[in-house]
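Hi everyone,

Forwarding the result from last night's run.
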Amino acid sequence: MTREDLARLAKTQIRVAFLVLLVFLGGVGLTMTGTLEKFRPGWSPHLVFPILTAFIVVLVVAISMRGLVGMPRCPHCKRLFMGYLLHIAIATGNCGYCGKSFENQP
């Protein structure tokens, strides 16, 4: 694994997080303002909001499970490269916890 691979992973995670946030906030906004009832009277907030919330929760859980399973680990200390450890690893090429290089390790 290289620093470029970790940077690509971090970009993908940020894009997915923004997409989920956009869908959730957009749905909440449409439901709360009553815009959905103007276009489709059968789509009441009592129906759309719970379905939208359940969809977002399932999506977030699926993404987080994929992230935990697919997240890279330090080959030395076995810590997940998440949060600030991911940023340190991208910037320096070393694990932020143990300080050893992870590049070109099996």
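The CA atoms of residues 28 and 49 lie 7 Å apart.

Cheers,
N.
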